[in-house]
Design brief:
about 625 residues; homodimer; alpha+beta; six-stranded mixed sheet; 30 strands
Chain lengths: ~625, ~625
């Protein structure tokens, strides 16, 4: 028997196997907080075709059940079936890029010229067993041996003290002793058994949560997991989440959901690689200021209120036992420092990964994610701003918008004569929607072919049936087959233009703040989800990116997780992250009149001042001549 | 209507009032962990006479109900009643001696020449409110202001960070900031409201738990509470408790019971003095090594196993939130350091209170409680030993033994001709038993009058009906009326002799260890429950105390709680407690052959070597001549 997915992918299954088990066995991981007991209600899938035996519907609501939703852990096939997996139910464990990336990452670490120095150090001690003549307490015995090795002033927290007596005796007094850089005791393990040492780097994005499982001995990336941030059900952006947390009292819920997202990723990673929970001995967290506050259990209310004050930017060390993470309870948690309410640890982490803070050349760092933050500077100074670009490039607020996953139109061309679109779909199956890079392509192509004007409005004179009137007004039909339609509406285009205008205006204003012209920027780092797939030329045509030579642009992908990975491995880089956060001057765009002017000018395609985009100007002239 | 107690005390009560409420209103406090809901089953009393309406019997077992046990919180009188309150049900709040003691204690603090310096310090800060141009995070704002006052390197734990934003805003940015001596942030309160500052000193005895509520501003003792350690139901001494903790898995139960004992005392003290839980901002704990380990949640197993190793002697600071104490959750807990498995923080605390470690004269410190510890030394050296004297002076293992509370025979004389005893009873009512000081009197009087011989056996030739054969063999009838008999049996006497012999042998051996003779001891401090009431002369006759001039003896009462009180108030004295614990050399008596010899010799009355007790020798000669 088989399970078929809408992308065409086919998996096998037996009658005795739940859908959850069969999917997991074949590398498709679902969110399953309760471990398949039918309690948490998270492994929802939609049954499109075929008959199944459903053992329990758990907490599913009657309308959900009517629409074909089942719990994968409680459902067994009676025949071949076709199912759809909603994005919220999906975990991604063991990314295919992981193995190739692992080498790149090690190279990156080496390129910084730092030694591997995780949050937890260790030392081997051979303690003299107690006798009636040497009967000091266990802690004092340990302290004495540490002192002989020059380690003084060690701090012992309650959990460690409570475990020390059995640990020393189980190890026969020959121990490996783990401790943090700030001299907090972490663990005792038997010296004769090589202890495995793992750490996790976590990027808590507003939309996705990514976990890197790392071998701390050699720095190797073992595996990767990612999932949608299940806070998404409370709102797409940080503002709606803050409102939910403060006004609806949903703070605990938000915190629980991000912690269980991380744990849901950790569990299959541990199972897959036979790693015990206790062997994960340190954690690094990177996230924007709101995500970090929520993870830390700090009420984010004041982030949203003028004058936008976070509770804390430089987070103290924390311990896993208090955070709820399923690692060694004693594992220290390092949190990437934040800069301001809307420039968080994810940006500091990204700047760290970019190395721009180490070079003398002036660079521009743009994180195009759910929000849109920019940094300009070099090894002497750094300025930053948050642009409120909104999550449209992640699919939110766009009729057929989606993330860059299987089924998304990722690139697109429009024939200038027939106006017929030609596109590529991730996974090569039928298109299901359009992702950020596809949107950029579509808009610049529609602009170049004259389908839309400088304001992003449809030019009704263009002779094609693809421009039509839809539910939200005019729209452009990208794809249709068997009742499936993928369109881009004028409302979608307005949203995208607002996003790109916010980003461009941010860059523009920051440059003015530091009295620099655009061409002093020698390098542009693009970070964020759809990084690698974006067509730079087209983003310039749209006026989202500044009109600079293409070779100055570099893609960093998810730079936040890369910086978290670097911080997990190096004490020097953790220190440098602190320096970056201290150095960065945050400019509040929302209170600047000049920003509004810049923004209004940038709402056009590519800009009201075409001289800022000489390449585009030339291109448009050429096109005119062609016609 | 009235409630009558066996001591003759009469209290009033109305039909609508539960016994618990009526007793509390008139200053008789019962253990009531659930606050009078009939759930915890701790406020048991025995109904001796009179009819009551019993609303619920909660968890009481049928045999208990049959024997007249009721829950005081669920029982309402229909007429005048007579009840008995088992000692386990009783809390003592607001000791009569408290107020007079308060002055003495302040004098004591002053006599040390130290300033009042509690665990938590405070400072007033006027923070500039955040603006859009000065929008650093709350923690960094606080850190900046602290830095301006020279306070750097402050540590902020999670609970503090989670509360800081609201606290700063509620205080309008003008705050009183509390922090520990080791630079841990504790609280923020509005600067314009004078914050009350209280602390609690706790003595966790094997038999009783005592709490001092102290005003930290002026050092005044506000009130006192005490109760029986409810771990008593698992055994009288530390060994049976350790066995219960380790072999029966009752560890958590033991820990919970001591924490709830302390909380049961704290609650009525707070109510009585209108003190909010948050205003109790520091805690000091003194207890023997086992009690301290159990309070700390540390498995005491290795304390009992050769070579008798505690998990920790020098305890780190702890926080109330983790201990379960109902004070400010952020309150730091200082634990008096222990010396060895059987010489604990209670002894260090007692030595601190005695000041013997500050003087050049050589002193002997004896704690005669559930165990029996001794210390010899001065300002240069200290040696100590635990004697395993057993809890018989607290009433345990003695047929009619009881603690020195209402109804106990506390002193006794025997007419040398008629052999009739004459005694005093605490509270002046009918005698209900005999306490430690009464036992010492009884034995020395019986010895002097020839009722018992040097070995503690009854001399059957003595012409009195008071020597008779009882259930356990020969016994001496001290009192009888209406079927109530109070006797001292030969088995009781054996127990008492074993106790006194253990203590004397300990002193003897310690002196030999340091090569000193008895007469070099210039001062003897007697600490422990029955301290003040013991007749020194009679304790010497019995051979329990060394035969030294009477003026060298001083009574300290519960020196452990006094030392805890001193530690609560002074940083210098906390440091000195650490020095005492480091300095003390512990001698393991149990492994010493010489100790067994000393012990065997001390089992006689007063001793096999009568030359060690010249005063007694003379007394016996005089008596002989009289006859």
């Amino acid at each position: 028997m088989y399970i078929k997915l809408p992308t065409g992918k086919t998996l096998d299954i037996s009658k005795e196997e739940s859908l959850l088990q069969a999917l997991k066995r074949q590398g498709v991981y679902l969110v399953s907080s309760c471990g398949g007991k039918g309690i948490c209600g998270k492994c929802r899938i939609k049954l499109l075709e075929g008959d199944c035996r459903v053992e329990s519907t758990g907490k599913l609501a009657p309308p959900e059940i009517d629409s074909g939703i089942v719990l994968a852990c409680q459902t067994f096939p009676n025949e071949d079936i076709i199912i759809d997996i909603p994005k919220e139910s999906r975990l991604v464990v063991g990314d295919k890029i992981a193995l190739s990336k692992s080498g790149d990452l090690l190279e990156l670490v080496n390129s910084f010229g730092v030694e591997i120095y995780p949050l937890v150090r260790h030392i081997t001690l051979d303690l003299p067993p107690p006798t009636i003549n040497d009967n000091i307490s266990d802690i004092e015995r340990l302290r004495r041996s540490l002192g002989e090795k020059g380690l003084i002033g060690m701090r012992f927290v309650h959990r460690f003290v409570a475990s020390v007596s059995d640990a020393l005796r189980n190890a026969g007094w020959k121990i490996t002793f783990g401790y943090t850089v700030s001299n907090d005791a972490v663990y005792i393990s038997p010296a004769d058994k090589e202890k495995e040492r793992y750490g996790v780097a976590v990027d808590i994005g507003t939309t996705t949560v990514v976990v890197y499982l790392v071998n701390l001995t050699d720095g190797r990336l073992i595996d990767v997991g990612s999932t949608y941030n299940s806070q998404m059900r409370y709102g797409d952006d940080v503002i709606t989440r803050i409102i939910y947390a403060t006004e609806s009292g949903g703070f605990e819920e938000l915190r629980d959901s991000v912690v269980s997202d991380i744990n849901n990723l950790l569990t299959p990673l541990q199972e897959r690689h036979n790693i015990r929970r206790e062997d994960i001995e340190s954690v690094v967290i990177a996230g924007n200021t709101t995500m970090t506050h929520i993870f830390w259990g700090l009420n984010p209310a004041y982030i949203r209120e003028d004058p936008y004050i976070p509770t804390v930017n430089f987070f103290p060390r924390w311990r896993a036992e208090f955070s709820g993470l399923k690692t060694d309870p004693m594992a220290p948690i390092y949190t990437l420092p934040c800069v301001a309410s809307y420039v968080g640890g994810d940006i500091v982490s990204g700047v760290l990964a970019s190395k721009m803070y180490r070079n003398s050349e002036i660079a521009l760092f743009m994180d195009i994610g759910t929000n849109g933050e920019i940094v300009i500077g070099n090894n002497e100074w750094l300025v930053t701003a948050a642009c409120s670009a909104g999550p449209c490039f992640e699919g939110s607020g766009i009729r057929h918008g989606m993330r860059a996953t299987e089924g998304a139109i990722e690139s697109l061309k429009i024939d200038p004569e027939s106006f017929e679109p030609l596109f590529n779909v991730i996974g090569d199956g039928e298109p299901m929607g359009i992702c950020g890079s596809g949107m950029i392509d579509a808009i610049s192509e529609m602009f170049l072919t004259g389908i839309i004007d400088q304001k992003g409005k449809f030019v009704r004179e263009v002779k094609t049936d693809r421009i039509r009137d839809g539910l939200d007004g005019p729209e452009f039909l990208i794809f249709s087959r068997d009742g499936t339609h993928i369109v881009l509406t004028e409302v979608d285009i307005e949203n995208i233009l607002r996003s790109k205008a916010a980003m461009y205006a941010g860059v523009s204003l920051l440059l003015k703040e530091v009295n620099l012209s655009l061409d002093t920027i020698e390098r542009v780092y693009i970070a964020g989800g759809f990084g690698n797939y974006m067509d730079i030329d087209k983003a310039i045509i749209m006026g989202m990116l500044p009109d600079l030579p293409k070779e100055r642009f570099s893609f960093l992908g998810n730079a936040s997780i890369t910086g978290a990975y670097l911080s997990l491995l190096s004490k020097d880089l953790r220190r440098e992250a602190g320096v970056i956060a201290s150095k960065m001057t945050n400019i509040e765009l929302s209170v600047s009149r000049r920003f509004m002017d810049e923004y209004m000018s940038a709402l056009f395609l590519p800009h009201t001042d075409i001289r800022l985009f000489p390449t585009v100007e030339k291109l448009l002239e050429n096109r005119k001549q062609e016609i």
